[in-house]
Write a structure and sequence with these properties.
Elements: E1 8-12, H1 18-28, E2 35-38, H2 39-45, E3 49-53, E4 58-61, H3 63-74, E5 79-83, E6 96-101, H4 104-113, H5 118-129, H6 132-140, E7 146-150, H7 154-174
Parallel strand pairs: 1-5, 1-6, 2-5, 6-7
Antiparallel strand pairs: 3-4
Helix pairs in contact: 1-7, 4-5
GO molecular function: AMP kinase activity; ATP binding; ATP hydrolysis activity
Family: Belongs to the adenylate kinase family. AK6 subfamily.
Catalytic activity: AMP + ATP = 2 ADP; ATP + H2O = ADP + phosphate + H(+)
């Protein structure tokens, strides 16, 4: 099967704007239909988890179930996978990995506003400071497809969306026969 649209991962520490960015990309890409999958929601809705972790207030994802569910979706392309991790997604599926970054002080405020417990705020803030997700992306994908973008303001958010939509359109133009 020929894939005629790219598959993109939008990743970053919780609170960096992944879902908002992914939703805006999906809604802005007029020439290329893109589908947004919020992986956290997808996991809950389709029982793609092993159990619920009370301490972290989150589901423990069954990555095999998740990948089995996603694989047929990736064949046509046009996916925006929005999650705080990127390493589970096979490199052969992915054309662009966008790692959103945010100053740790702003991130702390965003997570506090969401009502996250202190332990979870601290863990996520440390992850952002230590560039854990950026390192994960660089370890699992070729350098050419990993892009780090600041996501601290509405202006940056809009610029990021415009940049990624332009990238999608360029990808389609550069691959007229698909991949």
């Amino acid at each position: 099967m020929v894939r005629r649209a790219p598959n993109i991962v939008v990743t970053g520490t919780p609170g960096t704007g992944k879902s908002t960015t992914a939703e805006l990309i999906a809604g802005s890409s007029t020439n290329v239909p893109m589908r947004h999958f919020n992986i956290s929601e997808l996991v809950k809705q389709n029982n793609l988890y092993e159990r619920y972790d009370e301490e972290w207030d989150s589901y423990v994802v069954d990555e095999d179930k998740l990948l089995d569910w996603l694989e047929p979706q990736t064949a046509d392309g046009g996916l925006i996978l929005d999650w705080h991790a990127c390493e589970p997604f096979p490199e052969r599926w992915i054309d662009l990995v966008v790692v959103l970054r945010c100053d740790h002080t702003k991130l702390w405020e965003r997570l506090e506003a969401r009502g996250y417990p202190l332990k979870k705020i601290q863990e996520n803030n440390e992850s952002e400071i230590m560039e854990v997700i950026l390192a994960e992306a660089r370890e699992n994908y070729t350098q050419e497809i990993v892009v780090e973008l600041a996501s601290e303001s509405t202006d940056e958010l809009q610029a990021n969306v415009e940049r990624i939509v332009q990238w999608i359109e360029n990808w389609v133009n550069d691959h007229p026969d698909g991949v």
